[in-house]
Design brief:
One of its GO terms (molecular function) is nucleic acid binding. It holds the Pfam family LZ_Tnp_IS481. One of its GO terms (biological process) is DNA integration. This protein has three domains: about 45 residues; about 45 residues; about 150 residues, Nucleotidyltransferase, domain 5 (2-Layer Sandwich), CATH 3.30.420. The chain is about 40% helix and about 10% strand. α10 links the parallel β6 and β7. The two termini are about 45 Å apart.
Length: about 325
């Protein structure tokens, strides 16, 4: 089809050509009549003489020959390295002595998926899915997070001072302290994300035992229920707390089906894994907190922003609340 600014449609080209060829109009007169250049009028008249009305359609702009195109043998090597090693354009280019843009064009020409869309273990494109209704599937996971010492960690003081709580920097004579500071240990972020809406519920807890995980789920289920979501299935990894009888019985008592990911396939639980990353980037490490208490106090506000106001790329820029009509506080 002609581009948006083309002065002639296929019918207009045919009429112009017929005026020149059949009615014997001068080229300049036909060009003035149809408001095009003389060279344009001549081109459509010549095509009409050679091909009749069939010549009025646009032709491909691809050149007949491409002398500078990457040789087929080199293209095959690029594709082989990509499939065998799962390298990006830059690494392949450095290996073969090519420009990264050249390698990128070859990969795009053969419609190879981007690396972020490929399973690194198998090389197969990741199959993405989304359940049709809120509650059809809830993704649950735990993220381990180091606590911040009073006065701030390495975000405030730099790596040398900030690592004073790391086990790698412990004084052998004083295994629990370095420079007079106690090792503050870790917190455990228990997260639950609805597959359809991406609505999230998070708690900061002290461990990842089966008792803690089961109690967290009971509160998470109340959260989803209060917002009009009836949970049908829960998907977790194969952590010990999720393989326990207590976790199994807690879900069974609520009539919820438990599903687990395949071993060494965290992408199956990718929605909550992506939420973990967002949580770290936009809350946990978003600014240099002075204390762990300060960081924890910022979580509820961030979670409200995530659920109600932050645009989600998988939801066409809308927040999770837009897919949960009964969500309280949706329009705050």
């Amino acid at each position: 089809m002609p581009h948006a600014n083309a002065p002639l449609t296929e019918l207009g080209r045919l009429r112009l050509a017929q005026c020149v060829v059949d009615d014997r109009w001068p080229l300049r007169q036909a060009a003035d009549r149809f408001q095009v250049s003389v060279s344009t009028a001549k081109r459509w008249a010549d095509r009409y003489r050679a091909q009749d009305p069939a010549g009025m359609s646009d032709r491909s702009s691809r050149p007949h020959t491409s002398p500078n195109r990457t040789p087929a043998r080199r293209e095959r090597r690029i594709i082989k390295i990509r499939l065998d090693r799962r390298w990006g354009p830059a690494r392949i280019a450095y290996l073969l002595g090519l420009s990264p843009s050249t390698v990128h064009r070859v990969l795009a020409r053969y419609q190879l998926a981007r690396l972020r869309h490929v399973d690194r273990a198998t090389g197969q494109p990741i199959r993405r899915y989304e359940h049709p209704a809120p509650g059809d599937l809830i993704h649950v996971d735990i993220k381990k997070l180091g606590n911040i010492p009073d006065g701030g960690g390495h975000k405030v003081h730099g790596r040398t001072v900030g690592h004073r709580n790391s086990s790698a920097h412990r004084d052998p004579a004083r295994p629990r302290k370095v420079a007079g500071r106690a090792n503050l240990g870790y917190s455990y972020l228990h997260n639950a994300v609805d597959d359809h809406s991406r609505l999230a519920y998070t708690e900061i807890l002290t461990d990842e035992t089966q008792q803690t995980a089961a109690a967290f789920w009971q509160r998470a289920q109340l959260f989803f229920h209060a917002n009009g979501i009836t949970v049908q299935r829960v998907l977790t990894d194969n952590g010990s707390c999720y393989r326990s009888h207590l976790w199994r019985d807690t879900l069974a008592a609520a009539g919820i089906t438990h599903k687990r990911t395949r071993p060494r396939r965290p992408q199956t639980n990718g929605k909550v894994e992506r939420f973990n990353r967002t949580l770290l980037d936009e809350w946990a490490y978003a600014r240099p907190y002075q204390t762990e208490t300060e960081r924890r106090a910022a979580l509820p506000r961030w979670l409200h922003t995530y659920n109600h106001h932050r645009g989600h790329t998988a939801l066409a820029g809308k927040p999770p609340a837009s897919r949960v009509p009964n969500l309280s506080g949706q329009y705050n």
